[in-house]
Write a structure and sequence with these properties.
single chain; about 375 residues; alpha+beta; six-stranded mixed sheet; 2 helices; signal
Length: about 375
């Protein structure tokens, strides 16, 4: 084959691969992780297990407020028992937003409930990772977020899907770094594509480690983002944009996925590489469900920052070299076993505004009186 023809064929193949890859990514934004799928019991209930990293005081989980919001925005309230277990009763099949809050721990995600006679059976229990935050700052931010959404017509908030495609496997809130310490992520939206002009682009994503804001990125049109120079251990994610918001914690492991000793003296559970994903799914609570999940905070005055100490300086290619390793999750860290904790109660530095397509308010990571103190250069969705 002539050299010019080879180059032409290679160029065409590259374009096709790019287009097909982008389409696959676009479709995958609706595939909810298997970790988020549960089957309702014969009595019409599902168990939710709230979780924190090993070594963290789990007493805070007792009596946690949990709110479940259906696709129509109707909310139900529940209370966790002494072990952080919540019995979600009287629920039918369908997608729900679930938010848990107690003291300084908080998390949000999507729960897809299936009938007992569904073709693909899911467990009747789901674990939910909890991030340590300062709700005195997060609560008014959520209220502002809702205020922005309340100005929109229902059609502008998007339509929540009735049937949600599950991923084939669970990721167990663990993700493997790419070579060079690159953490890749992908937004997961349960909004229907029909008559929706809501974009995944420009969603602001904040990466945390040990409670410190170590990076910021904005998603591209397919909801992709990534960070460079990420260290292993427990991290937290806060994401917000026009397609919704998310807050949770997860564990980053090295390429090998082998067990390691944490700073607290606890070991992570060993994982084979095949069990680990290299793309972190970030499941968004959609706009139409958000008003129903603000109430768990109660009446809180915004008199404190979300975090308490300055963030480290970022470099243009990654994060600072400081920081301690994280701890494995209380549930054991196995697939559908452990998930949990994250923000160690410190951090900060002003983190800019949401993108033009987003809600138009900032994720509140700045300490009081320090809102103009930028945490440093940020990683773009392309990693540059």
């Amino acid at each position: 084959m002539p050299q010019r023809t080879k180059k032409t064929v290679s160029a065409i193949a590259a374009v096709l691969l790019s287009v097909l890859g982008q389409n696959a990514i676009a479709r995958s934004t609706h595939a909810l992780p298997a970790d988020n799928h549960v089957s309702v019991t014969s009595s019409g209930s599902v168990q939710l297990h709230l979780d924190l990293p090993i070594g963290q005081n789990r007493d805070v989980l007792a009596g946690a407020n949990v709110t479940l919001v259906d696709r129509n925005g109707v909310a139900k309230k529940y209370t966790a028992d002494a072990d952080g277990v919540v019995e979600l009763t009287d629920i039918a099949a369908g997608p729900y937003a679930v938010v848990a809050s107690s003291g300084n721990v908080y998390a949000s995600t999507i729960l897809s409930v299936h009938d007992t006679d569904a073709p693909q059976q899911a467990p009747s229990m789901m674990r939910m990772p909890m991030a340590v935050v300062n709700t005195k700052k997060l609560a008014p931010w959520m209220e502002t977020f809702v205020g922005q959404l309340s100005k929109k017509q229902a059609a502008q908030l998007g339509q929540v899907m009735t049937e949600i495609e599950p991923e084939a496997s669970q990721f167990g809130y663990r993700v493997k770094l790419r070579e060079g310490g690159i953490l890749e992520g992908q937004l997961v939206s349960i909004l229907s594509d029909d008559h929706s002009n809501i974009s995944l682009a420009d969603t602001e994503v904040i990466l945390m480690q040990n409670g410190i804001a170590v990076g910021k990125s904005y998603t591209n049109e397919f909801g992709e983002f990534h960070f460079k120079g990420v260290r292993t251990g427990v991290h937290g994610i806060v994401a917000a944009g026009s397609a919704g918001y998310a807050t949770f914690a997860f564990e980053v492991v090295e390429e090998s996925g082998l067990a390691s000793e944490s700073a607290l003296g606890h070991k992570f559970v060993s994982y084979a590489s095949a069990d680990l994903t290299t793309t972190l799914p970030v499941t968004l609570v959609p706009p139409s469900m958000i008003p129903g999940v603000v109430d768990p905070f109660g009446s809180i005055s915004p008199d404190a920052g979300l975090f308490q100490t300055p963030a480290p300086t970022l470099t243009s290619t990654g994060f600072s070299s400081g920081g301690m390793g994280g701890a494995s999750f209380g549930g054991g860290g196995v697939v559908n076993g452990g998930a949990g904790g994250g923000f160690g109660g410190s951090g900060g530095g002003g983190i800019g505004l949401l993108g033009a397509a987003a809600a138009g308010i900032a994720i509140p990571l700045a300490v009081d009186g320090d809102d103009d103190n930028d945490a440093g250069p940020v990683a773009s969705p392309s990693g540059t």
